[in-house]
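Q: Entry one of two.
A:
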Amino acid sequence: MLPSEPLANAGSLERALAGFLAFLRRRITGDYVVDEHGFDPDLTENVIAPLLRPVYQNYFRVETRGLENVPDTGGALIVANHSGALPLDAIMTSLAIMDHHPAHRHLRILAADLVFSVPFLAPLARKTGNTLACQADAERLLAGGHLVGVWPEGFKGIGKPFSERYKLQRFGRGGFVSAALRTGVPIIPCTIVGAEEIYPMIGNFRTLARLLGLPYLPVTPTFPWLGLLGLVPLPSKWFIEFGEPVETESPNPAAAEDPMLVFELTDRIRETIQHSLYGLLMQRRSVFF
């Protein structure tokens, strides 16, 4: 270790401690902002993000590409593939934009209603910028100039068997396209490679899942055989690529109501992501390196 390294480490620790004390002071005095959806950027930036960064940087070793395609300001809709049994792909995408985009923007994730029915998870999801995946909330956020993220495969994507990895499922009914058309914001296809391997789903406890009110209950090579240890995700190597924006501004205000236009644009986005998936898979050397 060089003589300057202990000094640098001490300086980093001192800055971190000062930042934490400033955060506590703001919480005590109430000097922080929470928006109408419950989003608390101060908590997200100073508590949640620092806890997730070691997972992002050292465990999954995420590499990002194409961040220049994400606008610095104004509304935009990021549409990504979904996989991995648990929605860690959404969390890692949000952190990628917050930490590595020049504007350090917050991604407002449209989450399934199941997220908001879990007592501890629901308030945490709200505070970190998640909101219900419904048309009204999506349009309100986009019209307000926010960066919004959607994973339109839903549970069909995140809960698919490992044998179907990297094969996109149906993109719902195109509600995200309608929201983008109504607000005139660009759609940015996002491709995520690596999440499929964190919990390889080789089976599904369907009956037990129904009893628990869950869409699926995965069986993986480690869960439930290793108990709680089986919940630790495998350390796959991740890539997140943001594609070129697809413009949606139209002189026709009724475009969002045209089912054929919505279907065609939805299919176009899906095909773009599927093609990018194949390209990234061809480029990667290994699942874990």
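Q: Entry two of two.
A:
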Amino acid sequence: MERVAIAAARSPLSDRARPMDQTGTIEKATDVLFFLHRQSAGCGISDIGRALDIPKSSVHRLLAALASRGLVEKDDTGRYRTGMALVALGLGVLEREPIVQVVRPILEQLALSVGETCFLVAARGGRLRVLEKAEGTGFLRAAPQVGAEVPHRVTAAGKLYLALDPEALAPPVDGHSSAAPVRSEEVRDGDRARIRIQERGLAWNRDEWIAGLSVVAGAVYMGDRLVGALALALPSPALAERDAQELEQQVKAAAEEASSRLSGLGRVPGSAWPPAADSR
């Protein structure tokens, strides 16, 4: 009877602790996945444990569970990297994004036309994420990958959002986003620049985020709601050799075409879209 009483007294505590333990395990597994995602090569158990301050035994168990679902893969040297199942999950999310399905062919056509890498960026959970990209022929083939977060204060896409829909960059109510809140004074400080962006639907970033990189982005709408930014990135030295106004016109035409398709309006009358392929 005494043992039964002791077990009964302990069980509520165990029931309360179990969800916390499960939550902690999920968080650690997520940390492992994000850590491996950021690495350019596979990592050993000791490397992962030291980087995340997790015991090797725990790392081993986490990796075993993740590997059983194909979320991580182990190579012949015993090092781990993200697995194809994780790629499939990410692609599945993107395929359910109507904006990606609509904008992808436009993005590819723009990249073909200008010969540079183009991106679709949108606000998700208070952060700016790369939803899709079309590779150009320049050095930017290793530029931000699909799913990557980009800063909003120093990027062309971020400037568009700050000028046109700053509320989209505020953290969600549940507080899970790590993005810093957008202060109203940040928008007020650049009144003239903000008004110009609002009037033109275009924004530039010249060497502000990455040295040697220039980006022009155009606003993409669904109806009257900003749903993304279509961005063209190129090396800053190359920009000096290109007609910046022509690049703006091509980006703006692509963004307007995307907006028209997303809004169900068909082709934009008198639009310069599609552009001719780059002949350089």
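A: Comment on entry two: The chain has ten helices and eight strands. The longest helix spans residues 2-38.
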